[in-house]
Amino acid sequence: MGSNTSRTIAGVLIFLGIFILPWWLSILLILISFFIFELFYEGLFFGIVIDLLYFIPRESFYNLPIVFILLLLFFLLLRLLNKQLRMNNVF
Q: 38-47 pLDDT, tens per residue?
């Protein structure tokens, strides 16, 4: 199976998982996909979807999209580590 095919299948499964699975399991799937696929930008889109569906506004977070921000920071940190360690993919 090609990389694009497996990436598309993972994206569809995560998207369906957002509606079926608990929010924390969907986030775990996105984090695993960041490790498996190089430049998994779709995970950031899924973070926005999770924030739109499950976000509860609170004063302590200043109504910021917390899941998206955390996924973005994780994505950027992983990109920085990949460049420093000169790794294409972890797996």
A: 889 999 999 9
> Residue with structure tokens 């000169």?
86
Separation between Cα atoms, residue 13 and residue 39, nearest integer Å: 18
Question: Could you tell me which of 22, 35, 53 has the C-alpha nearest to residue 10?
Answer: 35
Task: Flag whether the pTM goes above 0.85.
Answer: no
Nearest to 27 by CA among 1, 53, 4: 53
The verdict on residue 90 lying in a domain is: no
pLDDT < 50 stretches in the chain: 91
Overall domain count for the chain = 1
How far is residue 68 CA from its own chain's centroid? Answer: 8
Q: Which two three-digit tokens encode residue 39?
A: 């430049």
